[in-house]
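Pilot study result, target chain (72 residues):
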Amino acid sequence: MKALLGGNVRFMLTASAPIEPDVLELLKICFCCPFLEGYGLTETSGGSSVSWPNDPVVGHVGGPLPCVKWRL
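Predicted structure:
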């Protein structure tokens, strides 16, 4: 699959809503690259939370980026 995309894929990104952990694991295996999983409402906080590229744990969208301050 990676070769079909040109062979130079370094990572892939998914955003909007969290992906099911089983689906994300399958995508990592099929494309042989890390998947970054992001989350944030486009109008207010798009891209404010992204998982790390080599995070072995799936099922979460990571913490806030270094340039983001969250307040509850």
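One observation from the pilot: The beta strands are 12-14, 35-39, 49-50. A full batch analysis is planned for the follow-on phase.
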